[in-house]
Structure formats: C-alpha cells, structure tokens
Design goal:
The protein has 247 residues and is α+β, with helices and mostly antiparallel strands. The chain has a single domain, classed as Ribosomal Protein S5, domain 2, CATH 3.30.230. Helix content is 30%, strand content 28%. It is built from six helices and nine strands. The radius of gyration is 18 Å and the shape is globular. The relative contact order is 0.17.
Length: 247
C-alpha cells in the first residue's frame, strides 16, 4: 500500500542539497525534503564560552528558528531574545548531534555556530536541520582550514544524519510530512552516525502505545532512511567528503 502522497512506507521525500547558498558564511546549505526547506549556515570563531577558555578544545552550538512565513497561519516572530521551548529543545538536539561526531580537542580553541532557519515547514524540520548542518559544517571547516591546524579528517570522527519514523494508520513509515505527523499514532526522531551508531532516539506514543517488535521495525526503517541520506550528503559534498575509507 502507498501513502497519501504516493510514497512507499520506506521511501523518503525528494531530497535536494544546495551548497554555498549564501556568501557571508563559510558554510551554507539549502536543504529540502519535499516541501520542508531549511537554510543551514555554519560559522567559525575564535571566541569560546568563558568556561572553555584556555582548555585547549573547541565547542559547537546551534540555533534553530522557524521563520514567520514557514507555516500557515503565519508564525509570530520571536522578539527580545525570547525563544519558545520547542526551538530551545531542537537547537540543543542539533548541537548534541554535531558534537557527537567532532573531536573537540582536534578542533582546537574555536567555536562553530550552526544556524538552522526553517523557510518552509511540512514536517521533519529538526531532522532536516541536522542532516543539512553536517554538510554546512564540513564546508565551513574546509573554507577556514589554516596552516598547522588539524585537518578536517581528524576533526570529524564520523558523519551524521537524522530522519523521522512513525506509525500512521497502523503502518510503520519513514520521513513523515505534516499530514502524517499530525495524525501519527507513534512518532519518533532518530539521529545516527555514518558508522551506524545511535546518537539520539526520541519517541512517544501520540495516540497509541507501541510494542518491542514495532520499535525494532521503526529503528530498521530509520536506519535505511538515514543510510540513503548519508549517501545524498556524500554525493553533494563530492571530493570534499572527509570520511573516505571509514566504516
């Protein structure tokens, strides 16, 4: 059986990655999964949080925001530095996901800031942000490589990508759009490394419970979907892919 948009249960939405989308940031990626579109930019600075000063290692942080026109009706713009709880949770997730695949000591006393701005939201914005952020971070590290610094192949220990899975109308499916997400009985977001290790598993029963066989099935769907996303990242980066010869 096919889904409401004609996809098979294990089929991702059409994925597109456009590198160097803006000129100011050393890493910038426009990422689309179906009608979800995220602009991810990565910047690198020598200014570290005070608690890391002089400790010989770097840090990675992320900011996430949904632009007013990304949804209908319009989403009110955040004002006076106020960020809603959902955005705070998501940007922490993005930061954790990226730090999991970076050797912070090899990065040195530098800070990477990744900004993920949702231009259009049709489900899966947090997972799209993570997948896009990896590509933006690779480009930023390549663009700012300095003599004597550790090569990017030493700084990045693995790749990372993320995808949503869930139970919709009694079927396990991958990469939920908004229609599916809004009606899902079970909803999960899975973050994995290129080596096949889990970074984060976020899951809950929205309108139902789930058992262990369903959990195993959902994790299997996520693994397959993330494998395809990793291949798309690799194709987009081409010769700049820093994980050649790794597992």
């Amino acid at each position: 059986m096919t889904r409401h948009d004609g996809r098979k249960v294990d089929q991702l939405r059409p994925i597109e990655i456009k590198r160097n989308f803006t000129r100011a940031a050393p890493g910038s990626v426009l990422f689309s999964a179906g009608r979800t579109t995220v602009l991810s930019t990565a910047s690198i600075s020598d200014e570290l949080p005070a608690w890391l000063a002089g400790k010989g290692r770097g840090w990675i942080t992320a900011e996430y925001n949904m632009l007013p026109g990304s949804t209908s009706p319009r989403k009110p713009r955040d004002r006076a530095g106020k960020i809603d709880g959902r955005a705070t949770e998501i940007q922490r997730l993005i930061g954790r996901s990226l730090r999991a695949v970076v050797d912070l000591a090899a990065l040195g006393e530098r800070a990477i800031t990744v900004d993920c701005d949702v231009l259009e939201a049709d489900g899966g914005t947090r997972t799209a942000s993570i997948t896009a952020a990896l590509v933006a971070m690779v480009d930023a590290l390549r663009a700012t490589q300095s003599p004597g610094a550790a090569p990017i192949e030493k700084i990045l220990t693995d790749s990372v990508a993320a995808v949503s899975v869930g139970v919709v109308d009694g079927r396990e499916v991958v990469d939920l759009d908004y229609v599916e997400d809004a009606s899902a009985e079970v909803d999960m977001n899975i973050v994995m490394t290129g080596g096949g290790r889990f970074i984060e598993v976020q899951g809950c029963g929205e309108q139902a419970t789930f058992d262990q066989p369903q959990l195993v099935s959902l994790l299997g769907l996520a693994r397959g979907g993330i494998g395809r996303l990793l291949a798309i990242q690799r194709e987009a980066l081409g010769a700049d892919w820093p994980f050649v010869g790794r597992r």
